[in-house]
Amino acid sequence: MRSRRVIGRVFWLAFAFTLVTAVDAATPTVKPESVGLSTPRLARVTELMQRNIDAGTFTGSVTLIARNGRIAMLTAQGVMDLESKTPMRTDAVFRIMSMTKPIVAVSILMLAEEGKVRLTDPVGMFIPALQTLNVTVPNTEGFTPPSPAFTASAPQPSRIVPAQRPILIRDLLSHTSGLMSSGASTAYPFVVGSGETLAQALPRLSSIPLDFQPGTHWAYSPQYGFDVLARVVEVASGLPFDRFVEQRIFAPLGMKDTFFYRDGVQARKPTLYQRINGVLQKAADGAFMNGAYFSGGGGLSSTAEDYLRFATMLANDGELDGKQLLSRRSVETMASVFAPDTLPGRNAGEGFGLGVRVVSDPAARNTWLSKGSYGWSGAYNTHFFIDPKEKVVAIFMTQVANLETRGQLRDDFETAVMQAVVGH
Predict the structure, then answer these.
(1) What is the pLDDT, as a whole number, of residue 75?
(2) Phi/psi at 64 (5° precision)
(3) What residue ranges define each of the domains in the chain, with the CATH number in brackets?
(4) pTM, full prediction
């Protein structure tokens, strides 16, 4: 009897996967087998997301899997809002947070191709206030600060010294700058004011010490490292960052639903939740989303299909539908290892390129992805990867903040996608 239930469940999952893909997909899909993917095995991706929805990890999801540039799976599951129970839709507009960063990296590489930016340029060339900075370092010398007369003073655990060199563009792109990297800098509050722009806010970062000497460690700069890069794009191009990416990336790629701020899309935006004591509660957008601040660290909203077009351009050596946004060598440079897994702060088998993680050793990383695969994730539990060897692009999007298990979900998603690859 139990075996019949198991067989029935597997059959239902495979049927549900086929049904949802056929009914919900806004873009034509192909039969998975035509691109070397297995329909029953892809149902395991659907099952993974449904388990998390049933467990209350998030309310709903959109998953998209393509191979050889053709969509084999586009599935919406769950709901967009717990109160209204509005079904999730495949064209839902998600706050993609740090999946904004690879778009910033492409913007910088475009300007580098034009000779307007070098990877080795000091950031101070574009934002003079950030040319000369200080660094918080361990107090290994036992330095004791001056103390009032007749009082004792103990050595401090850390002290502030001048940076040994300026921050370079490549430091910010590879998270080796130490700028607001969740270290000692967290003791220095930095708030974007109402109506402030990148140009107005970012010079104030000069008063906050770096977390380490540039180039010596890897530590993720969640927001401001790439906000600085967005300002570099503005200075080098002469355009506000939102206009640059619209004119140079979104419009050429046909990414009609990717933007910083837009009215009239609220019905397609899933409610943002956060996990508090294991319960989903509504959360507000970040204070930096003020209508004027174009955060390169996490300000964009997009759909799974739009982001697929961006990722497919990268997978196609910088070209999509006859439009060459980057050269092949620029894409290869972006996905090269600038911060190896031997650098303090990196994980085994995973280096970091320009705005993306890069699989340098699949066995050391314990991953099903091929060597050279790359991608990134967002704080509200979104994720994408490109496997150049297998010609796979995969994306999932949800809307939940502070999810402790998002790293595990990311790994499980990658495994579920890659185990479905059965042909060439």
Answers:
(1) 98
(2) -140, 130
(3) 2-99+255-277+290-418 (3.40.710.10), 108-144+153-237 (3.40.710.10)
(4) 0.91
